[in-house]
Amino acid sequence: MTSVLPPGDAPWTSSNPARSTLLVVDDQRINLELINEMFQADHEVCIATSGAEALEFCESRLPDLILLDVVMPDMDGHEVCRRLKQNPITRDIPVIFITARDNLVDEVQGLEEGAVDFIGKPLVPALVRARVRAHLTLKQQSDFLHSLAFIDGLTGIGNRRNFDETLSAEWRRCVRTSQPLSLIMLDLDYFKLYNDHYGHQVGDQCLKTVAAALKQCFSRSHDLVARYGGEEFACVLPDTPLEGAEKKARELQQVVQALALPHAASAAAPIVTMSIGVAVAMPARGESPSSLIAAADGLLYAAKQAGRNTIKAARY
Predict the structure, then answer these.
(1) How far is 222 from 216, CA to CA, in rounded Å?
(2) Is the pLDDT of residue 67 over 90?
(3) Which of 34, 54, 83, 146 could disulfide-link 48, Cβ–Cβ 3.0 to 4.6 Å?
(4) What is the pTM of this model?
(5) Distances in Å between the alpha carbon of 98 and those of 57, 116, 124, 180, 295?
(6) Is the pLDDT confidence value at 180 over 60?
C-alpha cells in the first residue's frame, strides 16, 4: 500500500491479512500518511478519519492495535476509547493515544479510560515503532494466555466458557446491527452406547475426530464451533438467516457421516451420526440469548424424537 491516501475512501486498508493489523484514527491527512509510511512494510495499516468510522470498522473487524488521535471533530479520542472499552467485543484491543497535548491530566484521563500508552506530537518514527512493537508483543502474549482459558482440553476447539461469552457478545452485536443470529446444537447419536461398546479412550478419540471435522467447516472469523458438554457441540453463526444455518447444518451432518466412524451399537446407523437442532433469532433489546439456547435445544430434542440422525430447524 502506498502512503498516498485515496480520496473519500476511508476507512481503507492494505491487503496482507497474515500481518498484525493496525487501525490508525486521525482526521489529519499528513499524520495518516506519516504513520502509514512507518508501518506499511511490516503491518497491515487500516485508516479511519473519524471516531465514528473507527467504531464502525471495529464492528466488522478487530484490529490488533489502535493508534488514536485525541483531538478530532464530532467525537474525540477519549469518547472513542470509552466506547471501545464498554463493548465486550472491542475492550481488549490496545489503544495508544496520539496527542499534541503535553499535560499530566490528559494522560491520566486516557489511562483511566483504558489506553495503554501515549505518544506525543510531533511524531518520532523510531519511538512510535518501538512503542507499537512493545504493545503488539504484549497483546500476542495476552491473546495466547487468554486462548488457553477458552479452549476445550480434549478436542482443541472452543469450550463452554468460550461459547457462553461469544453467544452473549454476538447477541448484543446483532441487537445493534439488526442482523439474525443462528445457533446450531449437535449431539452424537447413542454416544453412551458407543463408549460402552468401544471404551472411553476410543470415545475420546471419536470426539477429537468429530471436533476437527466440524471446525474445518467454518471459515468466517466470527463463527464459533465449541464443545457444549459431553458429546454435544454448539455452533454460533452471526449474521446468518435460517436458510444459511440449515445449509451449514446439512454440511456438518454430511462431514461427520463422511468420517465413517463405525458405531455397531447405534440404532440410527452403523456409523457415527449426529442429531441437530437449528434455531434462528432476531435479537432484540431486553431479550436474553438463553431463549435462543432453549429453542435450539428443543429442536435438538425433536430431532432425537424423530429417529435421530436428522435436522430440525426453525425461527423463533
Answers:
(1) 14
(2) yes
(3) 54
(4) 0.66
(5) 19, 11, 11, 37, 47
(6) yes
Residues 6+ apart with CB under 8 A from 150: 158, 159, 161, 162, 165
| Residue 271, beta-bridge partner list | 262
Q: How far apart are CA 158 and CA 228, in angstroms?
A: 9
The four Cα atoms 160, 91, 67, 128 give a dihedral, to 10 degrees, of -70
What confidence tens digit (pLDDT) does each residue in 270-291 have?
999 999 999 999 999 989 999 9
Indicate the Cα dihedral angle 43, 177, 286, 235, nearest 10°. Answer: -70
CB neighbours of 29 closer than 8 A, spacing ≥ 6?
5
Domains of the chain: 12-148 (3.40.50.2300), 160-315 (3.30.70.270)
Choosing from 44, 170, 231, 246, the catalytic residue is 231
Q: Is pLDDT above 50 for 47? A: yes
> Is 231 among the residues known to form the active site?
yes
Q: Residue 73: is the preceding peptide bond cis (ω within 30°)?
A: no
Banded model confidence at residue 202, pLDDT cuts 50, 70, 90: very high
Residue (of 130, 77, 142, 75) closest to 107 by Cα position: 77
**Residue bearing cell 444455518:** 245
- Residue 196, number of CB atoms within 10 A of its CB: 12
Helix spans in the chain (H) = 29-39, 51-60, 77-86, 104-113, 125-148, 160-177, 191-198, 200-215, 242-259, 290-305
C-alpha cell at 92: 481488549
The answer to whether the beta carbons of residues 189 and 235 sit under 8 Å apart is no
Question: Would you call 157 helix, strand, or coil by DSSP?
Answer: coil
